[in-house]
Write a structure and sequence with these properties.
- The model has no long low-confidence stretch (mean pLDDT about 95).
- The chain has a 7-stranded mixed β-sheet, sandwiched between helices.
- Helix content is about 40%, strand content about 15%.
- It is globular, with a radius of gyration of 21 Å.
- α1 packs antiparallel against α7 (about 235-250), α3 (about 70-85) packs parallel to α4 and α8 runs parallel beside α12.
- The chain is α/β, with parallel strands linked by helices.
- It has 2 domains: about 1-10 and about 255-370, Aspartate Aminotransferase, domain 1 (Alpha-Beta Complex), CATH 3.90.1150; about 15-250, Type I PLP-dependent aspartate aminotransferase-like (Major domain) (Aspartate Aminotransferase, domain 2), CATH 3.40.640.10.
- α4 links the parallel β3 and β4 (about 115-120).
- Bound molecules: 4'-deoxy-4'-aminopyridoxal-5'-phosphate (PMP).
- 4'-deoxy-4'-aminopyridoxal-5'-phosphate binds next to α3.
Length: about 375
């Protein structure tokens, strides 16, 4: 089996799995219980929060545990828009965000917010100039993804964040789901950062929102006041402790993994460039974890052919591949209708190998040849 769909989700790391079993057998008490076992669990949860805070040079109260990036994005965007609507009702995002961002913005339009959806260039990147022009006196929120989940394009988050700091009324959010633990981006000037564990060999249904202390949000889930009242509901502390471990492992190995994955990406790029009818959609400076290309054949048939050989890839992103085959990301990048509807996304993890690339290239060539 060759698993090249790591942007959709990853296999859980063995160490993380071991911790999960240990927590569930030894520290299963409710951290809110006042007995010794409850307190031990509470302490472990606090250590996890502190360790995550250290990674992001933030304070413990700036880490809000969530069920993943979809929830983090919704809490960040709607929570911010509703909290600060008295300052203005203009909000900005891009045309190529994940549906959990785009649909949150669309929903806010129904509540009277005015949204600017920024264009991207042929590489899928947001133009700094376009952003500058879009900002108005009543702008309260800008949300720009760090790394695009379909093509891997990396935005200039540090530069944008620095610029937006000059607008005290504007909150800056970045969906960093495909960047955290993979791409070296400094989030110190970003007010809200969404992340998800399952893209990093952690658990599905686990994530966090980093929220700088000076930013307030209207909570989406009201209740018992957990997570500093921003996200009520009994905490899933085994997942929270495992998230800290997932992030620690990812950050410790980030550089080494990046170098390894870059080699895989380079090799595949080189081979794809030799194949007739294949057009690479990911820019050269994209995240090496994602390589997107279109072929002259129907992508669903190509992906099915690969799947029969137990090689797993995506046609665009898992979140939208079951709907229309056309990728709004590739359309926004100016690709034509056919190429936008017939893209294959290969996404790597540090566990993939050069041998797997060679097998993939051989099988892909055979499939494309047969489909002639
Ligand atoms: N944002 C991006 C960029 C993603 O790739 C994903 C996962 N497909 C999400 C948000 C949603 O993450 P989760 O599955 O944790 O809700």
């Amino acid at each position: 089996m060759i698993y090249f769909d790591n942007a959709a989700t990853t296999i859980v790391d063995n160490e993380v799995l071991k911790s999960f079993n240990e927590i569930n057998t030894r520290f299963f008490a409710n951290p809110a219980s006042s007995h010794k076992l409850g307190q031990e669990t509470f302490n472990l949860e606090n250590i996890a929060r502190r360790n995550i805070a250290k990674i992001f040079a933030s304070k413990e109260e700036e880490i809000i545990f969530t069920s993943g990036a979809t929830e983090s994005n919704n809490l960040a965007i709607k929570g911010c828009a509703f909290r600060y609507q008295n300052r203005g009702k203009h909000i900005i995002t891009t045309k190529v965000e994940h549906p959990s961002v785009l649909n949150a913005f669309r929903q806010l339009e129904d509540f009277g917010f005015s949204v600017t959806y920024l264009d991207v260039d042929k590489d899928g990147k947001v133009s700094f100039e376009d952003l500058k022009e879009a900002i108005r006196d009543d702008t309260i929120l800008v949300s720009i993804m760090s790394v695009n989940n379909e093509v891997g394009t990396i935005n200039d988050i540090e530069e944008i964040a620095k610029y937006l700091k000059t607008f005290p009324k504007i909150v800056f959010h970045s969906d960093a789901t495909q960047a955290i633990g993979k791409i070296d981006i400094d989030y110190k000037n970003v007010d809200l950062v969404s992340l998800s564990a399952h893209k990093l060999h952690g658990f599905k249904g686990s994530g966090a929102l980093i929220k700088r202390a000076n930013i307030d949000l209207l909570p989406i889930a009201s209740g018992g006041g957990q997570e500093f009242s921003y996200r009520s509901g009994t905490n899933n502390f085994p997942y929270e402790i495992c998230l800290a471990k997932t992030l620690r492992i990812a950050y410790e190995k980030q550089k080494e993994n990046y170098e390894k994955v870059k080699k895989l990406n380079d090799r595949l790029r080189e081979e794809l460039n030799k194949m007739p009818g294949v057009k690479i959609n990911s820019p050269l400076d994209a995240s090496p974890y994602i390589l997107n290309f279109s072929t002259v054949k129907k992508a669903s048939v190509v992906a099915e052919g690969l799947s029969l050989k137990e090689i797993y890839v995506s046609t665009k992103s898992a979140c939208s591949s079951k709907k229309s085959p056309t990728s709004y990301v590739l359309q926004a990048m100016g690709r034509d209708e056919f190429d936008s509807a017939n893209a294959i996304r290969v996404s790597f993890s540090n566990e993939n190998t050069l041998e797997e690339i060679d097998i993939f290239v051989k099988e892909l060539s055979n499939i494309l040849l047969k489909l002639k």
